Amino acid sequence: MSLLLSSIDPKLITLAQKVFDRQFATDPKLSIEMDERRKQLMFQDILYNFSFLTTAVNLQDENIFSNYAVWLFELLCNLMKDLDRDRIKVQMVDHYQVLSLFADELFKGEQIDLAKSYLQKAILVTEDAVDNIEVSQQFLQGRHVPIRKAYLNALLRSDTAKATQIIRDAESSGIPLEEIYEDIIRLTMLEVGELWHQNKITVDKEHYCTSTTQMILSLFYPTIFSQPSKPKKIVTCCIGSELHEMGGRMVSDLFEYHGWESIFLGSAVPTNALVHAIGEHKPNLVALSVTMPQYLGLCHEAVLAIRKAHPATLIAVGGRAFSTSNKIYERWPVDIHTDLATELIDWADKVVK
After folding, report:
1. How far apart are the first and last CA of the chain?
2. Which helix (H) or strand (E) holds 237?
3. Which of 30, 163, 341, 350 meets the CB 3.0–4.6 Å disulfide criterion with 251?
4. How far is CA 331 from the centre of its chain?
5. Was domain 221-351 assigned CATH 3.40.50.300?
6. Mean pLDDT in each 10-residue stretch from start to end of the chain (353 residues)?
7. Hey, what CATH class is 138-218 in?
C-alpha cells in the first residue's frame, strides 16, 4: 500500500494491517465498495482511530472517542454518497468490533477493558447517529411530529416491521385516516424526496421508502373501500413518464374513503391514453399529480388536451413540481391547484352536486 507512513511506529502499521485484513475477511462487500483510493484512506483512518482511542484511554475520557466516532460517521456519509447511512453504520460497527478483538495488542492491563468499553460506546453512538440526519423545518412542524419522525427513522433503517407498526399504532390510537395520510405519510415522503435530492440518502433507499409506504397504504384498503358511496367519480394519474405515483395514489385513496368512485391510472400515462380514459369513465373530476419539474410541460399538454376533448370536466393539479414554479398553474385552464387531498375533497364535494 503506497502510503507515507515512515513517521509511524512500525508496530502500529502492522497492527493496522491486521485490523484491515480482518475487516475485509469479515465483510466481503468491502471488496466491491472500496477501490484502491478508498482502501488507502481506510488504512489511514485505522491509524487515526488508534490515535484517538489511545488518547481517550490514556486520559480516561470516553467522550473523546465517542464524539470522534460520530464525527467520523458523518464524514464518511458525506464522502461515500453511493452508500446509504445504514451501510456505513455497518462498516463502522464491524470496524469497532474488529478493533476490540485486537485491543490487547494496542493496550495492556486495565487499559484493555477500558478500550473495549470505549469501543462499545462508539458502536452505540454510531447506531444512534443513523437517525440523526438533518431534516427540514417543515418536517418538524404541524401535527404528529413525533410519529412522523419515528416513521422516517424506521424507513431510513429499512425496518419494514417497525414502520408498519408505527402506522398501525397511529390508526389504533384514533388518529383520523386523513391525518395519517397527509400529516404523517405525505410529509414523511416529501422529506424522503428532499433527502434524496440533497444526496443524503441513496436512490435505492428512496425506492425502498416509497415501496414500503405503498405497501403500508394498502393495509387501509378494507376500511377505504367499505365507505358509503356517492354518485361522484374522479380519475387520478401521474402523467408522462412520471414514476413518483405516491401523490396520485393517496389522492385516489382519500376520495374513495369519502365515497367517491376513484379510478387511479397510475404512472407513465400518455396524454392520448388519459384523454381516452376520461371519455370512457366520464369522471366529474380529473386530478393530475406531478413530482418532478421536468414533467410540468407534459402536464400542461395534458391539461390542454383534456380541456379541448372534455370541456365540462373539472381539472385539478398538484404535486411537488408546482412548488418550484412561479404559480404556473394560474396561467393554465385548470379549476384548482392544491397539494392537500382533503382541501381538494372539500372543494369538489361543494362544486360537484
Report:
1. 76
2. strand 233-238
3. 341
4. 33
5. no
6. 58 93 94 92 92 93 93 89 86 96 94 96 92 85 94 91 97 96 94 84 86 95 93 90 77 96 91 95 96 88 96 95 90 95 96 92
7. mainly alpha
